[in-house]
């Protein structure tokens, strides 16, 4: 086990603790919000987490293994981000009192992950509008 695995173990212990509602019962919605938050922050600023951008792929695989272990074999990180774009996801963000900035960050990453081509078009359009 390397240092990165140990840090992820501690992060997922905290996620499970924060999402636990009774004994070993996880609030799947809160769990998904927390996982999406962790992944978004790691991708946005890997250096702040003490990792190199080149490590993100292997960290993604480790996170995926944790998500599958906790939510079931069919679960994946994209599914967690997809949840955020649903009415239930919006309600979960409100119930967990996410700030507007936090919510926007998660929805921004959802857009990148779930519709990369659409996200690129949107980003390109936004850049063009800012030039005018």
Task: Please render the helix and strand layout as text.
Blueprint: H1 3-19, E1 20-22, E2 25-26, H2 28-44, H3 56-71, H4 77-84, H5 87-95, H6 100-114, H7 116-131
Antiparallel strand pairs: 1-2
Tell me briefly what this model is:
This protein has helices at 3-19, 28-44, 56-71, 77-84, 87-95, 100-114, 116-131; strands at 20-22, 25-26. The chain has 132 residues and is mostly helical.
Structural description of this entry:
The chain has 132 residues and is mostly helical. It has one domain (3-131). It is 74% helix and 4% strand. The chain contains 7 helices and 2 strands; from the N terminus they run H-E-E-H-H-H-H-H-H. It has helices spanning 3-19, 28-44, 56-71, 77-84, 87-95, 100-114, 116-131; strands spanning 20-22, 25-26. A two-stranded antiparallel sheet has the order 1-2. Strand 1 (20-22) and strand 2 (25-26) form a beta hairpin.
Provide the β-strand percentage band: under 5%
Structural class: mainly alpha
How many helical stretches? 7
**Looking across the biggest beta sheet, what order are the strands in?**
1-2
**Any idea how many domains?**
1
Largest sheet: 2 strands, antiparallel
Identify the overall geometry.
globular
Percentage of helical residues?
A: over 70%
The rounded distance between the terminal residues' Cα atoms is 52 Å
Radius of gyration: 16 Å
The count of strands amounts to 2
What is the arithmetic mean of pLDDT? 88
* Unreliable spans: none
The H-and-E topology, N to C, reads as: HEEHHHHHH
Give structural attributes.
single chain; 132 residues; mainly alpha; two-stranded antiparallel sheet; 4% strand
